[in-house]
Structure formats: C-alpha cells, structure tokens
Amino acid sequence: MPVPLRSVAVPPASLDRFETVLGQRAAREMFAAMRAGREVLGDRVVWSFNSTERGGGVAEMLRSLLAYARGTGIDARWMVLEGTPELFAVTKRIHNRLHGSRGDSGGLGDAERAVYEEALHEAGREAAALVSPGDIVLLHDPQTAGLAPALAGSGAHVGWRSHIGMDLQNDIGHEAVRFLLPYLGDAEAYIFSRRVYAWPELDAARVHVIPPSIDAFSPKNEPLDRATVHAILHAAGLADGTASGVARFTREDGSPGRVDRRAEVHQDSVLSFRTPLVVQVSRWDRLKDHVGVLRGFAEHVAPHTPAHLMLAGPAAGSVTDDPESGDVLGEILEAWHDLPAAVRRQVHVACLPMDDTDENGAVVNALQRHARVVVQKSLAEGFGLTVAEAMWKGRPVIGSRVGGIQDQIVDGVTGFLLRDPGDLADFGRHLRMLLQDPKLATRMGRAGKRRVARSFLGPRHLIQYLRLFERLVEREATPAPPSPAPVR
Ligand code: UDP
C-alpha cells in the first residue's frame, strides 16, 4: 500500500533580496507585515497540501512562497497527496468542469464519489495525525478538498484554496461544485484567485480573494544575460548557433546549477538563435489550446514572417495529477504532422525534462527571455502564471481574455487580449503586429515588467495570506457562537 502523503523539503529563502525590486519603503512594509504575521502565528505550523510536487502553477508557487515563509521563521510545511490514477481521473474531471468544460465523457456520480472518498480516506487519517490544534492548513484545489473534514476535526484552521474558476458559472461547473461542497462545510476560509470565481453556494463571509504571484528570483525568473540564454537553449537542444556563454543558473537553494539534460523536440529543422521566436509554455492540457496556437500560427503568421513557434511543456507523463497529458500531446503532434512541410519547419514542439525542477525552470526562463512574443491562448485559465513570468522578463504577451489572464495583460499596453480565443485570424493579426514592430514589442514588454513588479510578486501574496491567517487565529480568542451551516 503506497504512503498517501509525502513531505516535500523546502529550503528557506531570504526576502532581503526584494529590497532591490520593491524599493526601500515597500520592502520596509513587507518586513513589518512578515514580523507581525510571524508573531501571531507563534509556533503554529502552516501546512499546505496539494497533489503534485512539480509541473503546473500550484507547485511552482508553493515552492517559492513556502521558502520565503520559512526564511522569515514561519514553520511552513508542504505535503503532497500521492493519489491513485483513479483519483486523478476523477479530479481531472472536476478540474475541467470548474473551468466550465466537460473534458472526458465520464460523469461525477456516486461511483466517482466512492473513488474520491476511498482514495482520500487514509490520507485524511494521516493528515489529521500530523497537524496540531490551532495549526493553519491550506488545501489546494479539488484533489485535496476531501481532506477538510478530517483536518478540521483535529482542531486545525482549514482553508481551501481554489486555483481554478469560471468567468461565468455554468451547469457543467455546477456539477463539480455540487461534488465538492459536502467536504467544505468545516473550512473556515475559501480562497479564490478572482472574485467572480467564488461559488455563490459558499458562505460569503469566508470568501477571500488572493491573486497568485511569481518568484522574481527562482531559477525560472532570475535575470539571465543573452549569452547564458543562448547557452541554455543550446545545452537543452532547443536551438543552435554560436553560444559563447555557459549554461549556468542559480538553484533555488543558492547553489550553482548547469543545464545538461536535453529536451525531446519534435521538429523538422533546428531553431537558430537569429530566428524570431514565438513561445507558449504550458502543460499538455486541452484548455491551453495548443492546437489552436499551432493552426493560428501556421495559417496567419508563418506565411508572412520568418518567425518560428515553439510549444513547450513538461515531458509526457511527468506531471502525475495530469492524466490527459499524453493524449493531448498526441493530438498536438498529429496537428503538427498535418501541417504543410514548409510551415512544419517553422513549428517546434518541445517536451522539457522535469527530473530536476530547477533545471527545468532555467530552460523555461531562457525560452521566455529568448521569445520575441509570448502567447497564452488558453480557452480557460485560473490565473496563468506563464503570463506574469513572461511580462516579468519584459516580453509582450498575447493572451485570451479569459480568467486571470485578463487581470494581468493590459490590452494595448503590455500586450494584447484576444476577445475570442477561437478567432485565429485575430490571433495571427496581433502576433504579426508585434513581430513586425520591435519598438512596440519593447515598449509593451517594459510596461509589463512594471506591472508585475507592482502587483504579482511573492511579497504581496505572502502578506495577504498572513493577514488571513491572523484573522483565523484571532477568532480563537473570541469564539463565535455555533456557526450556521457555512455552505448553503
Ligand atoms: N511550467 C514548467 N515547465 C513546463 C510547463 C509549465 O515549469 O514544461 C510551469 C510554467 O512556467 C508555470 C506553471 O508551470 O510556472 C504553469 O502555471 P500556469 O498558471 O500558467 O498554468 P497551470 O499549469 O497551473 O494551469
């Protein structure tokens, strides 16, 4: 019987380095808020439970936020639920529905509930034995929502953090909400990335809105000069040319790292450093609409420009809670094979090794920095960390006007928002505009970087979490009268 919960070690990181990014005044405010939060928490442990250690935005954020929290003396810990393929098939269905999309043809009935509850039963028991009364527990996404009753029963303050949501609630989404509601009655906080994502069925007083963030100093986002970018792309087998730099990066723990592992690239020609590149970095998930990006590029951009497109994502099968990735990658490769030969030479599909998260981050960093334009043409998107990552690197970004993408891109200022992600001609028109006007691209990229510095870095995110934790802890001093059923 596999162990259902696994602890992930997170080396602490210091927030001091944010002084250079935030400026002294904002940095002082950050340190004061962190001190206050730490005092309120005392020796309580702040637990985060999710279902994968790598791949995707949640793991990405946990790694960095927990490191900074630990660096300020908060006992923040990360547990990963080792789910079964059956569990992840059910939770992927919930995930797709919470994005308003049906996904596979399967249902969410009694049989699926039985699978979900059975898979979480032992994990719930183990989790409850780990935490102490008064600890703070954050459960991330549908995969771990079912742990809430067991954890609340052990006296911890439980919050459920949903990283996904719908711009407009629909019946499909409602099925997923109905599935999850029975587990969430004892949670004291429901945290969403956007106000419109909050389900009307939840007690509004417990709803909190905290947008995600990126880590400016992680291997994925640290500054890299052009020679290093080229060296990394060369070492990873993604591009060729004269690379005078060394494929070096700084690991999360501060030690030096080097890119050695090569990506598996499906291509008819090797990308040259000189060729203008358009990049989308995403998990292999239909909601990221890789096929739409590929067709839009092939039909409306490739015939008019020498630019190439690279679709980059994790090595197939490396993201354990993403069971559809192999099929989706297969569909993308089929669409790629079907392209006319001349256009196919301009499109590359790259599977990046995930064995070493830091190394993978460095490769994504180099790709995003090398891109002339970054796109994120998702059909639905909880937030879309890849957008903030690219903006932080001074890249103009074209994204769909969906979910959190529209909170990040300022249309016409930091990039373009596509009103209808299915309108491939419109996508192509905007892409050509940026490829053909480097001054516009540079101006938008700079505006994007300023926007991320103001709104989407870790310190803002951490402070919002700490304020929420303070509220939960303060409630202990003034116990509320028995609460009405929090879930309507
Ligand atoms: N990512 C990565 N390697 C990959 C594909 C994606 O490191 O091969 C990262 C990407 O850089 C971003 C995260 O995974 O940090 C994806 O987060 P996002 O919010 O964009 O989408 P999600 O995967 O959560 O739907």
List the helices and strands and how they pair.
Layout lengths: L4 E4 L10 H4 L1 H18 L3 E6 L6 H15 L3 E7 L3 H14 L11 H21 L5 E5 H5 L2 H6 L3 E6 L8 H14 L4 E4 L14 E3 L16 H10 L12 E3 L5 E3 L5 E3 L10 E5 L8 H11 L7 E7 L10 H13 L3 H4 L2 E6 L4 H14 L2 E4 L8 H8 L4 E4 L4 H4 L6 E4 L5 H13 L1 H18 L2 H20 L11
Helix pairs in contact: 2-18, 3-18, 4-5, 4-8, 9-13, 10-11, 10-16, 14-17
Summarize this, please?
The chain has helices spanning 19-22, 24-41, 57-71, 85-98, 110-130, 141-145, 148-153, 171-184, 226-235, 290-300, 325-337, 341-344, 357-370, 385-392, 405-408, 424-436, 438-455, 458-477, and strands at 5-8, 45-50, 75-81, 136-140, 157-162, 189-192, 207-209, 248-250, 256-258, 264-266, 277-281, 308-314, 347-352, 373-376, 397-400, 415-418.
Written overview of the protein:
43% of the residues lie in helices and 15% in strands. It contains 18 helices and 16 strands. Helix 3 (57-71) packs across helix 18. It is globular, with a radius of gyration of 22 Å. It binds uridine-5'-diphosphate. The site of uridine-5'-diphosphate has 19 residues, from helix 3, strand 12, helix 13 and helix 14.
